[in-house]
Amino acid sequence: MPAFVMPQLGESDVEGTVLRWLKQPGEHVRADEPLVEVETEKVNVEIPSPFEGTLTSVLVQEGETVPVGATLAVIGAATAEEMSAVPPPVPTPAPEPAAVTAPPAAARNGATPPVPPAVAQPDGGRYSPAVLRLASEHQVDLNRIRGTGMNGRVTRKDVQAYIDSGGLRGAAVSPPAVVAAPVAAPAVELPQPATPPPATPAPAATDEEIVKPSATRLTIARNMLRAAQSIPAAWMVVEVDVTKLVRLRTALKEEFERREGVSLSYLPFVIKALAETLKEHPMLNSQWRDDQIVLKKRVNIGIAVGSDEGLVVPNIHDADRLSIAGLAHAVVDLAERARTRRLRLEDVQGGTFTLDNTGVFGSVVSQPIINPPQCAILSTEAIIKRPVAVDDAIAIRSLMNLCISFDHRIVDGSHVGPFMQAIKRRLEAYGPETGVY
User: Fold this and answer.
1) Catalytic residue among 138, 281, 329, 408
2) Is 408 a catalytic residue?
3) Of the chain's two ends, which shows fewer C-beta atoms within 10 Å, N or C?
4) In CATH, which of 2.40.50.100, 2.40.128.110, 1.20.950.20, 3.40.605.10 is domain 3-84?
5) Which residues of the chain have pLDDT under 70?
6) Taking the complete model, does pTM exceed 0.70, yes or no?
7) For residue 26, what is the DSSP state?
C-alpha cells in the first residue's frame, strides 16, 4: 500500500503545510501528476504523485502542518482494514522540563509563580509560513511557545493550542512543576529567573499607518536576518565593458524572439559565463556544512524572481550544459511560473549558486545577501554608457558592474578575485561571432 509522504523541499526545511489537495479520495492519480499544493518557509509548490493508482485516503487535511516524512495520503487499491492500519503523523514530543528539588516558595505560599523565560526556536528562530501567519493574526510571541514538532519545532498546532489556552500577546503558559523524590539533604529553593514583560506593539501615531506583513514577507525577513547573522560575508565589485555584448544582443533579439517565441535578455549571456566560470572555480560552487566545505559537482544556478508575495529563487539545473538559447527559455519559464506560483518540487531544490539582476531597477552597485547554505551570490547592475579611455583615446562604452557577496569561511579574495576576472573576460569576449545555439 504505497504511502505519499511530506517531502523535504529545501535543505533547511523540517515541515510543510498542506494548502490544497488537487485530487480527492477515490480519484485516479497518474505518476508525476500534481497531487497536493504544499507551503514551506521558502515557496509554495505543487507536489506530484511518485506513482500511479487511486487516492484511497487523505491523512493530513488542508491547513495542517506536519514534519518532513509524515504520511500525507495513501495511494492504491487499499481495503478499509489496510487504510485503518496507516498511523497518522505523530509529532515528536517536546523534552520534559528539568526536575527541581522543591517547588518555588511562591508556589508553596499559593502565589502565582513568575513567568518562565521565553523558549527559543531550536534552529535559530525560523518558522513555517503557516505558523507565522497564525501568530501574526493573533499577535502571539512565538518565542514563548514550546514546540512539539520535529527537533522541538513550533508547529501550527502548537500555536493554535496556545491561542485556545488563552495565552495571547506573548503571555507564556507555565509548564507544571516536576518534583523529584525526597532526598536526605534539606530542600534548596531554586531562584526564579527574572523575565521582562512581553513587548506590546506600539500603536500607530496619527501620521502613521501599520502594515501587517504577509507570511511570505515574514519568512523572508527571518531568513535574511539568519543569513546576515550567521554568515561572515564579504563583497567585491568588478566593472565590465559589455559594449560588444550590447551590440550582439541588439542584432539578435528580434529574430530570436520571432523564432523562439521568448525574449532574449542579457541574463542568459551572464548565466552562461557564470556557469562556465563556476566549473573552473569549484570553491565558489560549494557550501559550509558542519565545519566542512562541501563542493557541489552540479552547477545549479538560482535566479532571484520578484513576485507580489516577495522574492523566490527557482533553480536552473545543470546550467553549464545549456546553450544561451536554452538558458533564455529556462529563465522565461521559471520567472513566469514563479510569479504565478506554479513552481514544481525540483525547481526549488538543489541550488548551488544564486544570480540576482538588480540592474533592472537602475541599481549600479549593490551588496546582495547570500542565500544559505550557498557560498556566494552575484548581482548584475544596470548597463550605463560612459566615456572611458581606450587605447589612449576617449570612447563611449557600455559598462556594467558585477557585485558578489561571499562566505569568508569558504573563500577569500585570492579565490574571488580570479573568479570575478574570469567572468569579466567571458562577458567582454562576446561578439558578432558568438553563437546562441
Assistant:
1) 408
2) yes
3) C
4) 2.40.50.100
5) 1, 10-13, 41-43, 77-126, 128-129, 149-151, 167-200, 215-216, 309
6) no
7) T
